[in-house]
Amino acid sequence: MEAIAVLERYRVKEVVHIGSRAAAGPDLQELMARVARGDQRAFSYVYDVVAAPVLGVVRAVLRDHAQSEEVTQEVLVEVWRTAPRYREDRGTAMNWILTLAHRRAIDRVRSVEAASAREHKAALLAHTPAFDEVSEQVETRLEREQVRRCLRTLTEVQRQSVSLAYYRGLTYRQVAELLSLPLGTVKTRLRDGLIRLRDCLGVSA
Amino acid sequence: MTHGVDPHTLTGAYATDALGDEERRTFEEHLTRCPSCLLEVRELTATAARLGLAAAASPRRTMKDEVLRRVTTVRQEPPFTESAGQARALRHRARHASRWALAACAAAATALGGTTVWQHQRADEARERARQTQERSEDLAGLMAAPDARTRTAKLAGGASATIVVSDSRNQAAFLAAGMAKPPRGKVYQLWFQDQGSMRSAGLLDPESTTTATLMKGPVGKATGMGMTVEPAGGSPEPTSPPVALLALPT
Ligand SMILES: [Zn+2]
């Protein structure tokens, strides 16, 4: 007799698309190709699409407004400078730019001081992501609602791990220390938390 | 496993930039030879970017002029061009690394409850397997990196998960599975393309590994789905048992 368990029917992932979200927009891809050829006009359009998300990512990690603006400008100039090296087959331009923004914010944080000394433990744990409540952009508001809804589907430890790592820029070792959890647990919660978010948001590579 | 951390579990920490510099470099090295981690990293990095988008905050209006003024004085970097020497060095490094890749895959299979022949095999067999693995993973990496690669993931019985990756431009598909039960003794998992109700063989899964990334044999063509069945060792010309997995191809 076959020892193979019975087939569980293939489940369709929940996929929700909102408007013409920039994350996958072909426009930005096209614009980036022009920027890569030195087109400054195209860069000004890229700026319009990415400046707010870049500032958002940087500010979430750095908190300090003046520093955030400074790093945001550096990131945007770096986007211009390294555009010829962006490769479409590695992911969308928005993902590339936001990854760059996140790394630069984290470089700044980690170079200044140990993140655990930056803020009190209580403040780190209590604080939800620094969402910009007065943002006038409908797309951002919808995106935020969806991300919030999906974050609520995570377990407490998954949500804290993901938020502290992404929005606060902590290493997983610092997260483990902060939450008094074993390293392996935080590593796993970061992974399965993001996988749950991926499925909830309908993200594909 | 005798060596330190299982690299396959670091995808989430990597996607959120939560690794230290040293760990990040080690993991990036791992990514060059682990297609399933590469795929997962792509998806989880895209997921992290959505967290970023949700935090968007409008900068002050004057910033735009400042940035646009600055870039007029900044020279752009040249695009990457891979010289023949660099390409050779990369290939050499990849080949050198492939034994470790095989060991890592074997370790992962063990961790997931499967068994592996790694310890029992003679060294030359192991090297041959490593070489084949390397070639397969270069093809696989090419497929995963294709700009039009689409994926779909499904849960299988017993907590296993399967992901199908399809690229139209390459007319190729790959099947990634993690945590599957080993096939019964003397049996193998066989993959199929589903073409308008008929099943076309797409090769066998490595029977020694329950965590696998397999390039499906043959072109995708007009296939709309894929299936996996349990067949006698060596495979069958057509399915002889009901599918244990059946997935529509991602659209
Ligand atoms: Zn891996």
UniProtKB/TrEMBL annotation, chain B:
Any one cellular-component term (Gene Ontology): plasma membrane
Region described as Disordered: 229-251
Cited Pfam families: RskA_C (PF10099), zf-HC2 (PF13490)
Location relative to the cell: Cell membrane; Membrane
Biological process per Gene Ontology, one example term: regulation of translation
Record keywords, A-Z: Cell membrane, Membrane, Transcription, Transcription regulation, Transmembrane, Transmembrane helix
Start and end residues of each Anti-sigma K factor RskA C-terminal domain: 101-243
UniProt signal peptide: none
Matches recorded under InterPro entries: Anti-sigma-K/W_factor, Anti_sigma_zinc_sf, RskA_C, Znf_put
Boundaries of every Putative zinc-finger domain copy: 12-37
Topology class, membrane: Single-pass membrane protein
GO molecular-function terms, A-Z: sigma factor antagonist activity
Protein name: Regulator of SigK
